[in-house]
Specification:
Hypothetical protein af1432; 335 residues; 16 helices; single chain
Length: 335
């Protein structure tokens, strides 16, 4: 018996009856020979971790654009915090931790530079629309590995596609990541807002604090404990009514005071203009897009608008700014 088979046997004997077992995966788009060491979801986790799109997350905005400080979150550190929260919950509920980790690490791979400002800009100018969850799936299915994709399992792709509020994953592990994403950004965006002198802990309404706590650590602990307590032994992942209501109120508080704060968001208009300018430029200068991206037009008949979104949307903040300066800012003439 291989190491992988022993691990699959352990899953069958130890994990919850509601867990998604590696051996029961619906499989990959392209059949592959099994690894003798790693079950399928662990293998997916490794593929995501070693991908170029994962590495680019280190230089993509979470909430604060190009912050002056080393301790503000980026899209990468957000992803790691989502993963850690999700793994804690999955382990406590005896669900598949490898599947949870793979979904969590891959859920934002399709995010644009400049966070949701970049996403709004591309969605506005591209007639096909743009949504980062769909682009994350496209990234792992098509764009990675020079147009061949990572060939991930159905369950991981499903969790990535459905991690936002408007949709629901098909596995409990995906549902854990969906909630963990919200918990992570509520927690760390509040922490960053405090660091940026936009908010103080005592600004959180007492009606919220009375339910989930008055400090960052108390609120994070409350969310995770409540999910575990409320979901144990059930074929669902959910919060209790009072905590779910408090989380929604906390989310609304964050939107009003951070996500729509004129100080925190003062540079977003510039970022959106930059993204729209890059989109318009590359739409009329397709020859400036890397060959491996352009080849998708010939191979798959991908519309040029999607190709431009693939290229511009994959940029880091730093690379997008550099490209904008190269294309639109006059350079000093040296005689």
């Amino acid at each position: 018996m291989t190491i992988r088979e022993n691990l699959e046997k352990w899953e069958s004997e130890y994990l919850s009856p509601y867990a998604c077992l590696s051996k029961n995966s619906r499989g990959r788009t392209r059949d592959e020979e099994q690894c003798d060491i790693r079950p399928v979801f662990q293998r997916d986790r490794d593929r995501i971790l070693h991908s170029k799109s994962f590495r680019r997350l280190k230089d993509k905005t979470q909430v604060f654009l190009t912050p002056d400080g080393d301790h503000y979150r980026t899209r990468l550190t957000h992803t790691l915090e989502v993963s850690q929260n999700a793994r804690t919950i999955a382990k406590a509920l005896q669900l598949n931790e490898d599947l949870v980790e793979a979904i969590a690490l891959g859920h934002d791979l399709g995010h644009t530079p400049f966070g949701h400002a970049g996403e709004r800009a591309l969605n506005r100018v591209c007639p096909l629309g743009f949504e980062h969850s769909a682009q994350s799936v496209r990234t792992v299915e098509v764009l990675e590995k020079r147009g061949h994709g990572l060939n991930l399992t159905y369950e991981v792709r499903d969790g990535i596609r459905n991690h936002q509020t408007s949709s629901m994953p098909s596995t409990l592990e995906g549902k854990i990541v969906r909630l963990s994403d919200k918990i992570a950004y509520i927690h760390h965006d509040m922490d960053d807002a405090i660091r940026g002198n936009i908010l103080k802990d005592e600004d959180v309404p007492k009606s919220i604090g009375a339910v989930i706590g008055y400090t960052l650590s108390e609120r994070l602990d409350s969310f995770i404990h409540d999910i575990v307590t409320n979901s144990k032994g059930k074929n669902d992942i959910s919060m209790s009514g009072p905590v779910a209501k408090a989380m929604q109120e906390m989310r609304s508080f964050m939107f009003e005071n951070v996500y729509q704060n004129p100080i925190a968001k003062s540079e977003e208009g510039k970022a959106e203009m930059l993204m729209e300018s890059l989109y318009d430029y590359y739409l009329t200068h397709l020859d400036k897009i890397p060959k491996e991206t352009l080849e998708l037009m010939e191979r798959d008949g991908t519309p040029k608008e999607q190709i431009v979104c693939d290229y511009v949307g994959a940029m880091t903040d730093r690379f997008a700014i550099a490209k904008y300066e190269e294309l639109f800012i006059p350079k000093t003439w040296h005689g």
